[in-house]
Amino acid sequence: MLPTKEQLIQHLTDKMTNQDIANIYGTTFQKIMHLIKKNGINQNELRKVNTQIVYEHSLNGVVVVYVGSGVWYRCRRYTNRGNLEHKKLMQEGKLTYKFLAEFDSEKEARQYEAKLIRKYKKARVM
Question: Residue 72 and residue 4: Cα distance in Å, rounded?
Answer without folding.
Answer: 23
